[in-house]
Amino acid sequence: MTQKGILAFSGGLDTSVVVKYLQDEYDMDVITVTVNVGQGDDAKRIAAKAKDLGVKRHYNIDSRTEFVKDYIFPSIKANALYQKKYCLATALTRPLIANKVLEIARKEKVTALAHGCSGKGNDQVRFDIALRSGSDLPIIAPIRDKNLDRDTELKFAKKHGIKIDSVAKKFSVDQNLWGRAIEGGVLENPYKEPPDDVFLWVKTANMSDRPSYLEIEFKKGIPTKVDGKVMEPQKLVEYINKKAGNAGVGISDHIEDRVVGIKSREVYETPAATCLIEAHADLEKMVHTKHENQFKSIIDDQWAYLAYSGLWQDPLKADLDGFIQTSQRVVSGTVKLKMYKGSLRVVGRKSDNSLYSHSIATYGTESTFDQRQAKGFVKLWGMQSTEANKLQEKRSTKT
Length: 399
Ligand code: ARG
Description:
By secondary structure, the protein is α/β, with parallel strands linked by helices. The protein has helices spanning 13-24, 43-52, 64-77, 89-108, 123-134, 142-145, 150-159, 166-170, 233-246, 271-287, 290-308, 315-327, 358-361, 372-398; strands spanning 3-8, 28-36, 57-62, 112-114, 139-140, 172-176, 179-183, 212-219, 222-226, 229-230, 251-257, 263-269, 333-340, 343-350.
């Protein structure tokens, strides 16, 4: 019986090499699936590339709206930033892509699942676990299985007449609606400033001399209106990417701890994610109590950690989603952001659910806050700490 493998195909170096490997070394018919999550590639070009590689059938699925509604929006509700910096742009697409691959795998009755991930990254973890959650078919990952490095892949591609674009030769890039991740090349020196030409979405020079503003309205944690206009989810993200990117906002550069233990230098362009998470987190502070804020930030960190680490399917993630969803019932209101030559600042927020009370907070004469009550409160609030210091001091002078 002919073996049939299915592969999530981007048309890039890794997945093109994998198609050839599956055909030549595993003697398989190959089905390719490209899931459009806003990577901005030309679907026709990718389909043509798949055809050139001799695949049996190629599928192109437009999942942009689903990606925004079911993956990006929940991540905004969770203020999801892995290690406080990374908005999970790549990570969020993996469970979605894996689900689409599984759907077609069933339809096509394939005998194996394949992916183009290396054994050094996080994506192998995300794909393996997501695929495993929905199927018991073998998983083939030639780049990992054969321990291939990028240079070997480039040579292999050349030998087989696989065309690779020039950016891919310099850097490894992954992009979608939620952001653009750039790795490799000169960026592997963590002290070297990224050259301007790595950035495509965010301006690093020739920015306007005038500040620009973004007004984002949220309803129950979901952004619905920007700059006074109701926008469809995908349009909304695209609009902010463009506007904030033009103002130089959205570059993030950090040392990231990968699941497999490697520390890597990661550079991201994520203008919409940066603005939406900043605005959403700010609004939460206005409508949640101190205790809710404190606890939710623990939940948020854990949510980002699970999504990053390929544990999207873990029951804990659904439990966290339950908490987060409940917490969003009051997260409605508008946040005003100011952007100027790469800087981003929240300059205003308002909400019908605001817990801010002017009469309590004001330093003016109309204050209803009786300061005299504070004296006793502060004394008791600090009692254990001040007593502990005194008792310890006493004991240390005795010995
Ligand atoms: N470090 C990020 C992650 O694991 C981004 C990886 C992006 N991949 C790339 N080839 N640049 O989600």
